[in-house]
Amino acid sequence: MKNGSTFLKELISDCNGTSIPITIFSSDQILKAANNFDPSTFVSCQRFFAWHKGVIQDRCYLIKRFKEEYLLNDNESMVYNDIVISARVSNHNNLLKLLGCCLEFPLPVLVFEYAEHGAMDEQGGVCSDNRQQQLPWSVRLKITKEVANAVTYLHTAFPRIILHREIKPTNVFLDKSCLIFHYQYLSLKVSHGLKIG
């Protein structure tokens, strides 16, 4: 109940009366989708969360699960901010689309669209079948342009600028078209008092 009320408070304060529809998943759906977060579902890991591949009703999803030690650092509000910002920017082609969340865990679990090629690695390649594959320059250039497009959107599309403070290859997912999907809103900062236009 606490997770739900905190989430709603953040969402209502951010959306100014506009509707941001996301699906609320049950913990049973999430656990079944990610096979109880079995290591075989692991996609990528960051400092405070891990990405898992999940399947719900024959459709693949990326499931973002925050590590419970994140609670120890009193960062819980940042998790809810992550949901709100992810929902707000989900309509942009170069940003990973938030489809829903589950509020039944100690920290919310987020459900995003699936990116078939997974996350990039530190060297700017992708891992395929447990082997590293370098991307051609034309694809790298396309990714660079799409990251720039996404960052421009974050800086200009909203009354308060959204600053991403951790742009790096491992924060980039690639779908089947090699379009870029940029994530990790925990490191975003919303600048208050700055007006656009």
Automatic annotation (TrEMBL):
Keywords noted in UniProt: ATP-binding, Nucleotide-binding
Domain annotation Protein kinase: ranges: 1-197
A molecular-function term among this protein's GO annotations: protein serine/threonine kinase activity
Nucleotide-binding recorded as keyword: yes
Cellular component per GO, a single term: plasma membrane
One Pfam family from the record: Pkinase
Domain of life: Eukaryota
Protein's UniProt keywords contain Nucleotide-binding: yes
Record GO biological process: cell surface receptor signaling pathway
InterPro entries reported for this sequence: Kinase-like_dom_sf, Prot_kinase_dom, WAK-like
Protein name, UniProt field: Protein kinase domain-containing protein
Species, as recorded: Brassica carinata (Ethiopian mustard)
